[in-house]
Design brief:
Alpha-Beta Plaits; about 50% helix; about 625 residues; globular; alpha+beta; Taq DNA Polymerase, Chain T, domain 4; Nucleotidyltransferase, domain 5; four-stranded antiparallel beta sheet; 4 domains
Amino acid sequence: MFANFTSNETDDSKKTNLDTLETLGCDYQLIDTEEKRSKIIQKLLTSKILSLDTETTGTEPMDAELVGISFSIEENQAFYVPVPSERDEALKIVNEFRPVYENEDSLKIGQNIKYDMIVLQNYGVEVKGSLFDTMIAHYVLQPELRHGMDYLAEIYLHYQTIHIDELIGPRGKNQKNMRDLSPKDVYRYACEDADVTLKLKNVLEKELKANDAERLFYDIEMPLVPVLVNIERNGVLLDTEALKQSSAHFTAQMQNIEQEIYQLAKESFNIASPKQVGEILFDKLKIVEKAKKTKTGQYITSEEVLESLRHKHPIVEKILEHRGLKKLLGTYIDALPQLINPRTGRVHTSFNQTVTSTGRLSSSNPNLQNIPIRDENGKEIRKAFIPDEGSLFFSADYSQIELRIMAHLSEDKNMIDAFLSNYDIHAATAAKIYNIDLKEVGSDMRRKAKTANFGIIYGISVFGLAERMNVDRKEAKELIDGYFETYPGVKAYMDKSIQIAREKGYVETIFHRKRFLPDINSRNAVVRGYAERNAINAPIQGSAADIIKVAMARIYKRFRTEGIQAKMILQVHDELNFSVPINEKERVEEIVIEEMENAYRMHVPLKADCGWGKNWLEAH
């Protein structure tokens, strides 16, 4: 369980009266001969449940090698099977356990089971049957808390686990590898992982039932796990030549901007130093009279501060531009080629199901959710994502899904009518607010209505809207008032959401995903305001996240049952991306759009747009 350890989550635990392996006296067995393996396999095959875990050489599942596998089918008993480093020998042992892993009739239980599934697939074994992930079960119940096994064992089992660093030492260059230890040193730790996971499942399944979270867990989160295993293993191809060209182009652009900044400042300085930037802007150029400072007296030059000062002096815009390019180069253009897996020739991002409190997936190594989509520079990155040879890049994304969910949740007649009539929702909003015919709506009116549409579902204030639209507060207030007159159901929904949050302490998505808002009754107006905005937005954003998860699982299932060769390779917010053999073009588009648009039935239809190309940019 190398992938999900959280060492020393509570240093004080040694002083408490928690149970440990010593006090419980469990039956943990080291299975280190062929004869013992044969016996255990027969025992495991008769069980309807199987708690499983893997010990590996690292935390990246695509690179990790198996050191051992452990199993538990009843509490306080578990088995550990060492796996040798020699590949053929390792495959022989893993293959002996294939019938256990691929038994469709047993429920497979794991803590971050996606990791174990990817590692086992690298050895040619697919984990089959229903799944129960204890980490995800706890996430569904308590999205804001930690979900590591050591922590869960203390909270739910009053038990202190053997921490990983007791075996391999603290993090750092001298930390050992699981492979460096003898099986005799590892087996109790590995058995405990499988046993504790089984015990947690027995507690958490009752909690899911008590909290009305079973549908969310069993129908949405668990079917998504094999889909993410598939996407992560598929990986995505990169055009490294295109990235190299982009790197040279952006580096040159950065150097030009640097010179422009120095000319505006009439001196050269370190643009990467917040201290020096502050001194130039506020001491030398005096772009504002009273600049914000930190407690230590240094000027604050965060992105937020600079954005608000953008119109004060041309140098500010240039500094922001420089920072944007530097971030783009460091985070993506120069970093992505370094993340290509030498064995597969692809980048394999990890999708995290238990990180965001809204229910959205996040991704890491690399984080592909934050690629700037709309600006020109972001397009350079998307150009480098390419399909397999002989395939096309296919992108499908939900059109205005959050506004459609708002129409559904608020049941606002005008908003529902606009969507049912297939109007451009932003133009329709502008026509209503300004009391004019749809045909008379100009581009500026539509832009303002669009800002209002998206701003208001995030609970934006008059001040916030005025700033975002670059208009005075009077016009922003008129716009918001006009908006609520146009869509009275939306105003009622917003008020009701805040009221529900005050009474219950949480709000819910359409699939009953809870977002807890402990600050909703805070006396601090700023803190309370933030919670109120979340009360309005969390059901919308969370419902959108749930809907795309349903669509992903259904598309994956259709591909498998129909023998489709196309591969799902990325999910970014409301968008799904695929590498599609040319001969499957029509069929794949049909399946993807059908499943996305039918993932959930609302008062207004879900709509998915799509595109094709030689790369991600062309397709979207």
